[in-house]
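Quarterly update from the structural biology core.
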Amino acid sequence: MQIGVIGLGRMGGTITRRLMQNGHEAVVFDHDANAVAALGRDGAIGAKGLDTLVRQLRAPRAIWVMLPAGEITEDTIVELAKLLARDDIIIDGGNTFWKDDVRRAKMLKERAIHYVDVGTSGGVWGLEYGYCMMIGGPKAIVDRLDPLFKALAPGLGNVPRTPGRDARAEFGYLHCGPSGAGHFVKIHNGIEYGLMQAFAEGFDILKNAGSQVLPDDARFDFDLADIAEVWRRGSVVSSWLLDLTASALASDPKLSGFEGVVEDSGEGRWTVMAAIEEAVPADVLSAALYTRFRSRRDHTFAEKILSAMRKGFGAHVEPKDRKAKPS
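Predicted structure, tokenized:
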């Protein structure tokens, strides 16, 4: 298939490369001309603007927008709506708030343009291992785009199959429902906050087992890198997050390269907001989110663990000059 891609950053660029590796044709645009040129060297067709990108695509067009959630994505979709024609498709693969998807789908439907929201997970590792995708939009349109999703997805891989299951979800992508459903199901990012916080606090407890406030016979000097490594081998908490933690501790045992300033990318807040609207108790996820807020005022070793994991899966770099100041 032919696909337009707007936004060639950490994930947009690798999504484009994975699609091309699987035989799809890509027309790309980014405000960074160097990013466009780099994809051009790999076989993509570069565009100098949204209007030229649209002209270079065959109708009915499909355009994947992979930009930061918020104003830049909103402005891009509004502009595309003016340029596209009936039966064209806009795909938002960023971290958009699901209620914005519902609104945009209604707006585009008035122009007979289709809208698909894709919660895209896989971070900087997606090119090699594939992307887990949670998709919202009209079923007929999602089915039309299936070759793209299949190319991006991890496939069965070496994950043990669940007995009695034979579904698309096993391949790492799923049509979750109508517009907004895809980004809503990416609530797993909110769950991730709680999982990360549990690891962070556990390692902080281990680190402080040697505290001088403890009796001599109750002190331990643990090698955290070795503990992370042994837990990876058959423990019930083995996971990708633990793998990332083990790697970070092995290369920097004291995590001296991190300050412990932990950002949140939006999904954690939206998860808690959904819990409030549904009157569902979310004690752990709420506490994990608030801990990230506190990390911008004072830091513990736990926050360094969180920062290390975020850098591992998403190449997120601490915003060292954006610490919140006490009010």
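The radius of gyration is 22 Å.
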